[in-house]
Amino acid sequence: MMEELILAVARGAGLSPDQAALAVAAALRFFTARLPSSLVGELHVRLGTRKPSDTPGAGDAR
To answer: In the chain, pLDDT over 70 holds for what percent of residues?
Structure first.
């Protein structure tokens, strides 16, 4: 799903995939710094950047 997000940002903002990947990474850092860890963990699980077992409680609510 992460690749889909990067491509959507690239298309929507008129960026190259590399630029979009940087933008998505910046947004994830922003969320990581400002949202509760359980939400950040769930976001990473759903994006496929972490497995549910890597983030306590993140894969529980579906």
So the answer is: 85
